Each structure stands twice: as C-alpha cells, then as structure tokens.
Amino acid sequence: MKSGSNLEKVLEAGHFAVTAELGPPKGADAEVISKKTDILKDCVDAVNITDCQTAVVRMSSIAAAAILVSKGLEPIIQMTCRDRNRIAIQSDLLGASALGIKNLLCLTGDHQKFGNHPQSKNVFDLDSIQLIKMIKDMRDEKKFQCGEEIEVEPRFFVGAAENPFSDPFEYRALRLAKKVEAGIDFVQTQIVYNVEKFAKWMEMVRELGLHKKVYILAGVAPLKSVGMAKYMKSCVPGMDVPNEVIERMVAVGKEGAKEEGKNICVDIIEQVKKIKGIAGVHIMAVEWEEVVSGIVEKAGFLPRPKASG
Amino acid sequence: MIIGERKPIQEVLGMIAEHDKILIAGCGTCVAICMAGGDKEVSILASAIKLARNKEEKSIQILEQTPLRQCEWEFVDELKDKIETCDAVLSMACGIGVQTLVERFPKAVVYPAVNTTFLGLPEEQGVWSERCGACGNCVLDKTGGICPIVRCSKSLLNGPCGGSQDGKCEIDSEVDCGWQLIYDRLKTLGKLDNLTDILPAKDWSTSRDGGPRKMVREDMKL
Amino acid sequence: MKGDFEPKITAFCCEHSGLLSANMAVESRFVFSNDVQMIRVPCSGKIEAIHIMKALEEGDGVAVFACHKEACQFLRGNLRAEARVSSIKEILKEIGVEEERVQMYYLAPSNGIKFAQLLRVFYENLKKLGPNVGRKVG
C-alpha cells in the first residue's frame, strides 16, 4: 500500500470506485463542510476538496479536508501550481499528511484571470507533472525536491487530472503517459459528455498500456438546466457537450431538467463503465452535492464496499 | 527588443505638476521602433503637456531631446546641458533608460512617461507581442524554438494544460496556446518525441527569482 | 464675448481634393473666415500627428480635408490621416480639450460648395466652443 487510503484499498480490491467533489465555502464556516460531509458520507469512497477552484478564494482544501477526516469521510485534497511555490507546496503537504490526509490530486490550476483576484501574481514554479514527480519522490525516495532527506515522509495516493477533450487531441494520451511516468497512481478525467470522443481517447490510452499502470476514473457531472449545458459547451474551455445532450435537456422543459440531468449522468456512467480500462467514476456536482446519492443509487453502486485492513 | 507604451497623460501630468521647466528625453532605440518613446512621441507628448498646462493657466517650458540610446553612459551624456537647466526630466525610454539617467545625473529628478511592457517583436505594423521572459536559462532547443515560459500563460514546461482549445489559450480566445504552437512546430520538424521527455523542475535562480542579476566578463573589461 | 470670438483655424488640404475644392470656393466667392490658414499637402497621409498638435498649440481648431475613402491617389493615405486624427482626439480627450477641435472631412476634387459648407460648419462649431484654452498664452 502506498498510502493505505480507502480509495486505494477499494481500487486495489478491484471494486469500481466512486468519488465525488466538495467545494469548500467562500468563508470560514466549518458548518458548511460538516453538512456536505453528511450528505456525501456512505455513498462515495472519497471526496475531492477543491483548491480555490477557478481561482476564487475559498477555505483551504487541506483545512476543509481535516474536517472531513474528523467526521470519517475520506478526502482527496487538491493542490494546484498556481498559488504556491515548491517550498509552500511541500510544507503544506507535510502538514496534510500529519493531519491524516491520504489522497492528493495534482493540478496545474485555472489561471487567476477567471477568479476573484485577477490582479494577483501567479506562481507556476512547477507544472503539474513536476509536482507529481516531487510528491512521488517525497513518498518513495523520502526526499524533498532539493534532494534533502525527509525523516518521516508524507504518504499520499497520488492522482492527476487529464482532459481528453482539449487540444491537441492527439497529444492528450501522451501527456497522461508523462504523468504516469512522473508517478501518479490514479487519474480523474474532465467531465465526459461526449462518450464517443472519450472512448477514442481511451483507445489511445490503452495502446500506451496506461490503464494497466494507473486507475482511470471517468469524470461525470449532472446538468441542472439547459442554460448550464449551453454555458459549458460554449464558455468553459476544454469542455465538449454534444448537441444530443443539449437536445435531451431541452426536450424535458424547465420542470424536468434536473431529473433529466441526473438521468443523462447515469446513462453516461453506464456507458463509460463498459469502456475497457475504466476503474471508477468521479461525480462532480459542486454546490449540488445532494444529487450524488441519487445518482450513485440509480447507477447501482450502493452500498459502497467497506475497505478492510 | 524592449516594448513600451506611453503612460496615460493624466498620470504624467500628475508627476510634473510642480515643475515649470522640464526636459522630455526620448530614446532612439527600442521604444522608438515600437513608437512609444522616440523623437516623434517626445514632441507629441510635449505638445499635449503644453496644451494641458495652458488650459490650467500654468504654462510650462519644455525642452526635447532624443539620444540614440538612453541605456548607455556615452549617449545620455549628450543630455547633460539640458538636464542642468531643467527642474525635472520626463524619460520616454524603458525603465532601463530612466535608471541610467538617475545614475548618471544623481541630482536630477527623473520620471517615467512610458510603461515598459515586455520583450517582444512587432508581428506586423502596430502589433507587438511577447517572445522572451529573460529567464536566464533558455529551453528553446527543446521546444522547437517557441518559448513556453512566456507563450504559455502558466509557463508550463511539460505540455499544454486542459484549457487549450482550438489552438487558443483558456485565458483569452485571442491568445494562441503556446503549447499548441510548440506541438505543431515539433510535428513539422518530426520531433514530437521531444514531448515525451519530462522536463524537470526549472531552476528559476537564473531568473528574476534569484535576485537582481549582474554579469561580469573579465575578458571584456578595460 | 463668444460672439466676437473669431476662431483661428488651420486647414490641411490634400492637393488632390481639399485644395482644388478650396480654390473653387475662393474663386466662387463663397465667403469664409479670414482667419483660416490653408496648408497644402501632397496627400492627407503626409500629415503627422505632431503637425496637428502644433497647429492646436497656436490655434483653435484643425480641419483635415482629404479625398473620399476609396479615392486616395496613394491608396491608403487618407486612412492613415484618419487614424492619426483619431489618435489626436484621444489625446485631447485625455487632457480635457474638446476633441471636436480636430475634424476630418472627405471631399471630391471639385466641390467648392461642399468645402465652403464644411468649413462653415466647423467654424460655427468652434465659435460655439469658444477659444481653445490649451492655446499658447500671450
């Protein structure tokens, strides 16, 4: 075991893993985290805690994750390269490990232009691949990035994100290969609406044998409305929402939109589950966490396996 | 070359509000080529300042001079006589020029009238774009001659992030994705293999992060 | 006092249009203010921003008479002039001087009446604006 996390155990045991996402509040209210924890507990194996997603200041991923740990729900902290240099990242990760956090997702980070402090200075001392390598070396070589030894090393189950829908498409699987080589254990993909294109990407991933080296969790997200579908299609870079999906949302009208959004999500889960090399799904329903249990139930993923050992 | 852009005139007027006689010093090199601080821009700014100050019934005397370069002692020495007769100098050079004047004429009050924006080239007449971040440790050999430090919004060294779409960067649909450019270029060169190697964490100590930089070449010293 | 005010105007005239029309206007005795300084240019594109600025330092308004958009003898000279005029307007806006003090007009080569009319309108506008406060004192 690399970290001994629940997620690692579930995947190692060959179960189809289910993870979700939790956005910390834009404030210091611990209650928000506790409530969301209660909503997500027992229906997923672990929960991503975003790190100032879209560059908007929110409660820190590690602090929020510590609350989850205390409540018995396993967090996957996220770490971006945008806000911290290698000194701050390593320091924060030592602390996270000491707080009992065992999963970590390494991200480049959205540019601060999208956030609420567009005038800030960004860091990008490392990129996500260099970040992965650094964390793997901390865990497996017991070494800081500078080469100095670590007495008690942080032990994380290390993940990365990959977006099969951004460009250049032909390079996307190769980029995942770089992340695998750098040392990831699992990957969560960008939200899949275009299953056909996703399958094509997975084909390239399998050709490189990456599905045998890391666990691949397909990202999914329930749509709330036609507006959200259209926004994602046209305004979110690297998001591919096919017209058929939008048509399905339009067809059911305003009242049926949320229900249909859930149905589409479950349909996509069923399709990606059949793709060879998919080890789980990552359900992203930020600020709509209550929908997750319904989706998980409908997809037949309950009860979640109790990891032993 | 160094690219610059004239500051808003109101900001400049604020700097010189207390002065009645100034020298506007241009620079005949980079900022002249990018039409921010050459002799033409000096004369237009002088004229605009005169109009603005007359309007406030607080007329001002303005001398103008544009040495070939404002970043070398022997060229800025030409400004000596004029500087000595003025209350202040408004430099239309890049930040280097401003500081060259300050160091050469310690008694002079020198203000910047230009914002130094980046190191780049004129893509076409009237359009300039950034090409170099002066990081002190060039990687262009690995990236097909396209700089990931300044042409990728996140200075990534190991390929495009998830925000690359249709060849454009996530920050702005007008901005090319630097890594798409690198990918296309390496593809043309038949060197896509370059992209499978992991570039290790960069040593930024040669960049601004290492503190103020200085280079000494004993062989060139007199 | 505005009623007595005679604006001092500089008119840059392209010799392929503005100047020919101006000559016709004079010959046909279309009366306009005496205080117009006519400057002949081989093409409106020859006018630099600084020429307009210098004229403003000494006067109340600057008019540029150029050929119609597609009719420039040098293809793009009048478009360049237009870009320069708008850059001057930006500067005037920045320093709080009325941007209407600089105007660009397009003319056919032999339109004395139009020339006189345009100049008249410009003159009347300047009269309404009053003296250029940015003009050299004394």
What would you say this structure looks like, in words?
The complex is a heterotrimer of chains A (309), B (222) and C (138). By secondary structure, chain A is an alpha/beta fold. Chain A folds into 2 domains: 16-162, TIM Barrel; 193-298, TIM Barrel (Alpha-Beta Barrel). In chain A, 42% of the residues lie in helices and 15% in strands. The longest helix of chain A has 22 residues, at 253-274. The mean pLDDT of chain A is 95. Helices cover 29% and strands 21% of the residues of chain B. Chain B has helices at residues 9-15, 30-33, 39-55, 73-76, 80-85, 95-104, 148-151, 178-189; strands spanning 2-6, 21-25, 61-65, 88-91, 110-112, 114-124, 127-132, 168-169, 172-176. The longest helix of chain B is centred in the N-terminal third of the chain and has 17 residues, at 39-55. Chain C has one domain (8-129): Lumazine/riboflavin synthase (Rossmann fold), CATH 3.40.50. The interface between A and B is medium-sized, with 36 and 30 residues.
CATH superfamily of the largest domain in chain B: Response regulator
Backbone structural class of chain B: alpha/beta
Report the largest inter-chain contact. A-B, 36 and 30 residues
What kind of assembly state do the chains in view correspond to?
A: heterotrimer
Distance between the termini of chain A: 10 Å
Number of helices of chain A: 11
Walk across the major sheet of chain B and give the strand order. Answer: 3-2-4-5
The first-level CATH class name of the largest domain in chain A: Alpha Beta
What CATH architecture label of the largest domain in chain B applies?
3-Layer(aba) Sandwich
What Rg of chain B is obtained from the alpha carbons, in whole angstroms?
A: 22 Å
List the helices and strands and how they pair.
The complex is a heterotrimer of chains A (309), B (222) and C (138).
Chain A: H1 6-12, E1 17-22, H2 30-40, E2 46-49, H3 61-70, E3 75-80, H4 86-98, E4 103-107, H5 128-141, E5 157-162, H6 169-182, E6 186-191, H7 195-207, E7 215-220, H8 226-235, H9 243-251, H10 253-274, E8 278-283, H11 292-298
Parallel strand pairs in A: 1-2, 1-8, 2-3, 3-4, 4-5, 5-6, 6-7, 7-8
Helix pairs in contact in A: 5-6, 6-7, 9-10, 10-11
Chain B: E1 2-6, H1 9-15, E2 21-25, H2 30-33, H3 39-55, E3 61-65, H4 73-76, H5 80-85, E4 88-91, H6 95-104, E5 110-112, E6 114-124, E7 127-132, H7 148-151, E8 168-169, E9 172-176, H8 178-189
Parallel strand pairs in B: 2-3, 2-4, 4-5
Antiparallel strand pairs in B: 1-6, 6-7, 8-9
Chain C: E1 9-14, H1 18-27, E2 36-41, H2 49-58, E3 61-67, H3 77-95, E4 102-107, H4 112-129
Parallel strand pairs in C: 1-2, 1-3, 3-4
